[in-house]
């Protein structure tokens, strides 16, 4: 984690105090909170994450040309802080025609998006539909 590296190198940040003074306990949520409170290291790290995420999204847009990208997990919790940087990168790096009609939205499942996706995949692969016992077709009683 870049925050830990910076802290080990002697940079100061309120994220360290939030982690009880233990560098090994510094987590992303500390960095985002520190950034929101004006912490310079936190702001720099959040800007770097937004730029990296933006570059990744540009690549996805150029390769797959999706109409929508749904983000979840930790990104969804902090999207309000990442969105300006991500959108700046999209404007600067993506071919404009790829962005026409393209939208980024946040999953309603938040941190549980991975679990919900895994469950949906299991249901799809096994053919089980929620609310219906396995092995029974819709017309049988």
Structural description of this entry:
With 141 residues, the protein is mostly helical. It is built from eight helices and two strands. The chain has helices at 2-8, 14-18, 28-36, 40-64, 74-77, 79-93, 96-99, 113-126, and strands at residues 68-71, 103-106. Helix 3 (28-36) crosses helix 4 and helix 4 packs across helix 6 (79-93).
Short description:
The chain has 141 residues and is mainly alpha-helical.
Topology of helices and strands:
Layout: H1 2-8, H2 14-18, H3 28-36, H4 40-64, E1 68-71, H5 74-77, H6 79-93, H7 96-99, E2 103-106, H8 113-126
Parallel strand pairs: 1-2
Helix pairs in contact: 3-4, 4-6
Radius of gyration from the alpha-carbon trace, in angstroms: 20 Å
Low-confidence stretches: none
Measured as a percent range, the helix fraction is 55-70%
* Named CATH topology: Nucleotidyltransferase, domain 5
Number of helices: 8
Q: How many domains comprise the coordinates?
A: 1
Strand content: 5-15%
CATH class: Alpha Beta
Strand order, sheet with most strands: 1-2
Give me the CATH superfamily: ATPase, nucleotide binding domain
Mean pLDDT: 90
What's the total count of β strands?
2
Mind summarizing the main beta sheet?
Answer: 2 strands, parallel
- Straight-line distance between termini: 56 Å
CATH architecture: 2-Layer Sandwich
